[in-house]
Specification:
The complex is a heterodimer. Chain A has helices at about 5-25, 30-45, 90-100, 105-110, 115-120, 125-130, 135-145; strands at about 65-75, 80-85. Chain A is mainly alpha-helical. Chain A starts with a helix and ends with a helix. Chain A has 7 helices and 2 strands. Chain A has one domain (about 5-145): Sufe protein. Chain: A. Chain B folds into 2 domains: about 5-30 and about 295-400, Aspartate Aminotransferase, domain 1 (Alpha-Beta Complex); about 35-290, 3-Layer(aba) Sandwich (Aspartate Aminotransferase, domain 2), CATH 3.40.640. The longest helix of chain B is centred in the C-terminal third of the chain and has 21 residues, at about 295-315. Chain B starts with a helix and ends with a helix. Chain B is globular and about 70 Å long. In chain B, strands 2-8-7-6-5-3-4 form a 7-stranded mixed β-sheet, sandwiched between helices. A 4-stranded antiparallel β-sheet of chain B has the order 11-12-15-14, covered by helices on one side. In chain B, strands 1-13 form a two-stranded parallel ribbon. Classes of the chains: A mainly alpha, B alpha/beta. The interface between A and B is medium-sized, with 16 and 17 residues.
Chain lengths: ~150, ~400
């Protein structure tokens, strides 16, 4: 799979997650339901091919390995991402994070308040609970992409 | 019979967290009230710096501090009290050893011997200094059941390593190494012996006279004591050969810009103000622990371990890496095809505290060809109820992950 295809497929998957999964997550009554949804999200995303899992894409600070690929469409000023992780819950949470920022322009990305968004989804505990799951590192990484050229 | 409920009642932590099942004991243990009270009593009533004050308060603090050293020396059956060096933990002890033996004892071309089971603290310090000094590191491999390969150990000893360093108990698998035999073999081969007691110290009272190793390190916080304090035990003749890793404070005798001469043991290896409250807390932990019969504690822990093994084996999809025999109470496991951090995450949702990952033992996981494991570690204050709750949570994890 080439990069263009991967970005396009991920874009479609993230849009679908935003439309379908976010309301479900928000309404989930218990953690079990939430987790069952999160587990499915990772499966909807195209996996990052092994040869593309380069060291420089690794998000540091994870107990599990997670990769984040960023692409800035400069003509349209839109930011796109591809992600993968060994761990399914982390991958699901990252999918949610990315579906919120997918396709944003640089100023939107810079202004984006992830912790507020996660709060609205009743997911905030997952952001703060552990440095170890790499979500905080991932969030910082995404924010930094707004100023990357 | 060991009365686990009265034992457990002495830990305020469980009173504050009645809904949690704490099974991350190999990372750090909870502290009995005897320890937290000793630490706060020191700060509230006795706080003064040690070994330097002209005043009576400092002399009292010093007496208390040195009494703690005696308590610990007595507990580990050191021949001399000055053989107990206070450090910030097992890691600091091993770093002092690796640094301190280079040049004085270990020379370019010498070999040292480690094992495949070691955690990073017993690998990286050696690596750092061995690379600089051209000292060669050999590694004892494991057998198929993940015990140390003692035949290979003897073959590697034939290469005449100057030093052998190994852990008493694997921090990942819980397997107990035959330290007594390993020390004896190493000594017969003429090697200096270092035993990493990080996990071993709480399993069994270390007996330096019987074990007869040259060095032994442990951390206080894995023996019901405070964090940030530990012990480097060494036989006098070897401690004297260590170059101090840190300089400053009470460790010197005289200083000029031309030369510095060092104080006597133990002070020459204890630069700066020590963790006085930590040392007093550690001695309090040992004094407290000694009222219990360790045989009964070992029996209680093996009861928990067996119940856990029995239950976990019934859960489809759970792969256990640890062996139930010669095990100090640690179980490494995985759910087939799932990442350990996902399993631990779901256990966490159910308020079961375990560790997931590579447990600072990456070479072991490379060897096992695994990207990590979930580690369940039992302590004396855990109950059969804890075991059952953990098993139920594990079942739930498997159900959610494999749905």
């Amino acid at each position: 799979m080439n990069l263009e295809q991967l970005l396009a497929d991920t874009d479609i998957a993230l849009q679908a997650i935003q439309q379908q999964a976010l309301p479900d997550i928000k309404q989930a009554k218990d953690w079990q339901t939430k987790y069952r949804i999160l587990m499915q999200l990772g499966k909807q995303l195209p996996p990052l091919p092994e040869k593309m899992k380069q060291q420089e894409l690794l998000v540091k600070g994870c107990e599990s390995r997670a990769w984040l690929l960023h692409y800035h469409d400069k003509k349209r000023d839109k930011h796109f991402f591809v992600l993968d992780s060994d761990a399914r819950i982390v991958k699901g949470l990252m999918a949610i994070m990315l579906c919120l920022v997918n396709g944003m322009n640089s100023s939107e990305l810079a202004k984006f308040n992830l912790s507020q968004q996660f709060d609205e989804l009743n997911l905030k505990p997952y952001l703060s609970q552990s440095r170890g799951n790499g979500l905080t590192a991932m969030a910082a990484h995404i924010k930094a992409c707004s100023s990357a050229t | 019979m060991f009365d686990v409920s009265s034992f457990r009642r002495q830990f305020a932590f469980f009173h504050h967290h009645p809904d949690w099942v704490y099974l991350d004991n190999a990372a750090t243990m909870q502290k009995p009230d005897a320890v937290t009270e000793a630490v706060s009593r020191f700060y509230q009533q006795d706080n003064s710096n040690v070994h330097r004050g002209a005043h009576q308060l400092s002399q009292q603090a010093t007496a208390q501090f040195e009494q703690a050293r005696q308590t610990i020396a007595h507990y580990i059956k050191a021949q001399y009290v000055h053989e107990v060096i206070f450090t910030s933990g097992a890691t600091a002890g091993l770093n002092q050893l690796a640094f301190g033996l280079m040049h004085t004892v270990l020379k370019p071309g010498d070999r040292i011997l480690l094992t495949q089971l070691e955690h990073h603290a017993n690998i990286v310090p050696w690596q750092l200094h061995c690379q600089r000094y051209g000292v060669i590191i050999d590694v004892v491999p494991l057998t198929a059941d993940r015990q140390l390969d003692l035949n290979a150990y003897q073959q590697l000893l034939a290469l005449k390593p100057k030093l052998v360093s190994f852990s008493h108990i694997s921090n990942v698998l819980g397997h107990i190494q035959p330290v007594q035999q390993m020390v004896a073999l190493a000594k017969a081969a003429g090697a200096i012996t270092v035993v990493d007691g990080a996990q071993g110290v709480v399993y069994q009272q270390p007996d330096m006279r019987q074990l007869d190793c040259d060095f032994y390190v442990f951390s206080g916080h894995k023996l019901y004591g405070p964090t940030g304090v530990g012990v480097l035990y060494g036989k006098t003749q070897w401690l004297e050969q260590l170059t101090p890793l840190c300089g400053g404070g009470e460790m010197i005798d005289s200083v000029s810009f031309v030369n510095t001469t060092f104080n006597n043991l133990p002070f020459r290896l204890e630069a700066g103000t020590p963790n006085i409250a930590g040392v007093i807390g550690l001695a309090a932990a040992i004094n407290w622990l000694q009222q219990y019969n360790n045989k009964l504690i070992i029996e209680h822990k093996s009861l928990l371990l067996n119940a856990f093994f029995q239950g976990a084996r019934q859960i489809k999809g759970v792969a256990i890496l640890s062996m139930p025999v010669h095990n100090a109470g640690i179980v490494a496991l995985n759910v087939d095809g799932e990442h350990p951090s996902d399993v631990a995450d779901i256990l966490n949702q159910q308020q079961v505290a375990v560790r997931a990952g590579q447990h600072c033992a990456m070479p072991l996981f490379d060897y096992l060809a695994l990207n990590g494991a979930v580690r369940v570690a039992f302590a004396a204050y855990n109950t059969l109820d804890d075991v059952n709750q953990c098993l139920l949570a594990l079942e739930q994890a498997v159900e959610i992950l494999t749905a």
